[in-house]
What we know:
The strands form 4 sheets. Strands 2-3-1-4-5-6 form a 6-stranded mixed β-sheet. The longest helix has 21 residues, at 302-322. The chain folds into 2 domains: 24-138 and 299-367, Response regulator (Rossmann fold); 140-265, Response regulator (Rossmann fold, 3-Layer(aba) Sandwich). By secondary structure, the chain is an alpha/beta fold. Helix 6 crosses helix 7. The chain is built from 13 helices and 15 strands.
Amino acid sequence: MSLKQRLIVFCAMGLFSIPSIAEIVIGVDISTTGPAAAIGIQSANAIKLWPGTLGGQPARYVILDDATDVSQAVRNFRKLTSENKVDAIVGPNITPAALAGLDVLQETSTPMVALAASSSIVTPLSDPKRKWAFKLPQNDALMATALVEDMRRRGIKKVGFIGFADSYGEGWSKEFTAAAAGNPEIVSHEVFQRTDQSVTGQVLKLMAAQPQAILIAGSGTPAALPQKTLVGRGYKGLIYQTHGIGTLEFLQLGGRDVEGTLFPTGPGVVARELPESNPVRRVALEFTDRYENKYGPNTMTQFAGDAMGAWMLLDEAVARALKSGAKPSTIEFRQALRDALENTKDLTVPNGVLNVTPTDHQGFDERARVMATIRNGKFSYAQ
């Protein structure tokens, strides 16, 4: 009997088998409907560009919409971990949903790479639930200091603040207040809901304090409402926003009212205008070209860059986790993947350079921020 015939017989008898290639399963929870859809859709667009491998192994992505609903996000987390046996979760897009999912991460020993911004998702790391939480968007503190530095350069002494009445706005209020340290002085503080249809009362209070500039701490299209109201009421000072506004829908909804807005952002958003010396420019441009070849000119956003950065982070970490010998879809592999994520060094992604450590589950430094503005209906480099 020939060798080929023996192999056929052995396989038929179950005495010989070829080891199957391990499949990495990643769950994705994003907001493609609801108030945060403008953010989630940008993430979804980038996810469609993810390669079909992670760490050199085949990968499968299970994508669920949480409809910008915290309860639905938690249900998605439970489905992904119990039914789909995912090795990690990417998302959510909004801070309240990411915080609500922390219990599931701890219960199932599943790492998460969040696409929401607040540092509260990954701090304090002394909390056992946050052992499993990582995130791509820059921490509020990093971006808040960029804003304060810009305000001081412009001689702004008095500033007003209006932010979401949730963990995103609260986080920004805390970090901006700490960064400013009284210079500039916050002379008025207001809040609003993501679903509000009017903020006239808050705007009138802000304007009565006569600030030279106003910071709006919101994300996606809801962040346009205070700005449109301020402009409509005749406010003439500078208007700042956070990196959470980086969506095309914000530009469309805001129209002329958001021209001249100043905001900190990841370098990927303005990749084509970055100086040659910027350390992120090459990687940012590569992804921008790929993204805009698919979706059209001037479509690159902070959220698309973060979603691609999540794949790059996982790709590098999965390759190292596989060396542990643990098999995907096991608790041992999820632990190895968590440990690998926590030891990421000098990884350049579209919005910065990541150095993730046991004391920092975000990992960006000043290379992950630039000041930008809205000019002629487009996001543009400002410094």
